[in-house]
Amino acid sequence: MNDAVLCAGVVLFGLSAGAAIVFAIILAALVLFATEVVPVDITALGILVALLLVQPVTEQLAMWGVLQGPVYVLTEPGSDVTAVSQGLSGFASTATITVLAMFILSAGVRRTGAIQILGSKVAAYTRDDETRQLGATIGLVSPISGFINNTAAVAILLPMVTDLAHRGKSSPSKLLMPLSFASMFGGTLTLIGTSTNILASEITGRLGRELGIATLEEFSMFEFTGLGIVVMIVGTIYLMTVGRLLTPARIKPAEDLTEEFEMADYLTEVVVREDSPIVGEAVQTALTDSDFDVDLVQLIREDDVFLEPLGPKTIQPGDIFAVRTDRETLVELMDVDGLDLLPEVEVTDTELETAERNQNLVEVVIAPGSSLVGETLASSNFRQRYDATVLALRRGESLIRKRMDRAQLRVGDTLLVQATSDSVDRLNNNRDFIVAQEVTRPDYRKSRIPVAVGIVAGVVGLAALTPIDIATAALTGSLGMVLTGCLKPTEIYDAVQWDVIVLLAGVIPLGVALEVTGGAALIADGIVVVAPSLPPIFVLGLMYVVTALLTNVISNNASVVLMIPVAVEVATQLTVNPFAFVLSVTFAASTAFMTPVGYQTNLFVYGPGGYRFTDYVRVGGPLQALLAVVTTVGIAAIWGL
User: Fold this and answer.
1) Whole-structure pTM over 0.85, yes or no?
2) 524 exposure class (CB count in 10 Å sphere: 0-12, 13-18, 19+)
3) Which residue ranges form the domains of the chain, and what is each CATH number?
């Protein structure tokens, strides 16, 4: 047999074949998670498929004589549990089902308009005082994020905070990063504050049962609330003082959105001459389908103003078009199509909203899981699909106002959109987008506010005070949202972020494989080598730092899956409290401040805040270091080592 041939029992560079394969899968996953060449949920699905294929493929290779024996990564040889059932366990896990139910509960609260009403009360209090605005933003999102998913809380509150900044003539950049960070503080208050906590709870309970460690159990509802309150207070003080000084005002306070997106050189009005060659043609044929980089924003015909769809309208002499284009293209367009520039015309928000005297100009953020991610405005037929015109695209600090139809869309991209009020409503109701301004919605079920809030309180109470587990309580609450009319039956499917569910189901088996193959023990061995020279509290802090750095690069849920087994193994080898080490990993994975890709809420505010990638390091780095110390000391003081 060739020396290079691997088998289940062969050790290669200190690794068994199973561990070597698992580490190879982890390495590939880390690269894909960090680069996002493909969406994170697809990467997770790839992990799952790779793990499921290892055993049957190596069994076949062993039958052909290529290997001495099959390689096992999901089950021990001879186990009664099949590799398939272990691999697919993520879809049936308590964590996955609980997170799914929490999305439904959050949607039930959102549909009543309760959070929006609360936000309007806050806006009346803050006025144009930036200190009040910042304090109210942090003070509102933190406690709310403890009881509805913190990602959902940011999605709900982002329009309110953006409007708060505009009305108070403040930079939205000064408020949106604190909104994201504060939601993470809130997520550490309870078990249901974030999917990370729920996943960590399940993994901890499983390891406790498998390893026979009595102190490792699923978290109770308020297991770490005391430490979460400390983290929230310290984080709030930081954001109100040092963080406020470090947070840049990337977007200058502006009177309207056209000014904010610097559209002065890209928006103008032209009139169709009597002798224009395009008179009598349909707008779509004459202008929309041309090779010019131009968008028709609206048509003014005598006293009437028309928005999308403009394509079928026949062009008449004297028609005035508001257009989005650059100066060079405008000159060429005027020569070819017989158009004259209207002198001394400034196209502002007021001008663009004359069609309906309503909210026709809005910022729209591409949400995680959006079907438009990876598409372009052209390939997605955005204009025709949504009856809306994109005037500009902001990606972090970069503004794109030319050839936007060729830009591949990413999560967090912010589009400046002109549309009818009906189209704005459709965009607001579409899970692909977050409309970053408050949009008046007549379909809020305000009469159901007490019911929805009561259901969430009931879920928390059942899980905290009775033997009913969190998954059962959350599913019961989800059913209650439908039976009481807070949600329509068809709305529950739109409420769920399916990319998160697939991500959870895909990465959970990776943690199982890490344990089964001894991969977690090998990583732990490396940490323990240096641990004897360090006090246990320093090792605890090291687990926090390693997890935090990992989380800032890859998914927070993936980092929990990888690091909790390692943390338990390190604690076991050092004969210290494993539960303390689990909490260190959990808190670190729930608080990723240093990159926009570390946490979904950071991506939500990346475009609307106009941030640079380095802004997260500048503001989030000191906060991450501060909380590393606070969390480590807090865990040691409360739970002991």
Assistant:
1) no
2) buried
3) 11-74 (no CATH), 94-252+452-511+518-638 (no CATH), 265-345 (3.30.70.1450), 361-435 (3.30.70.1450)
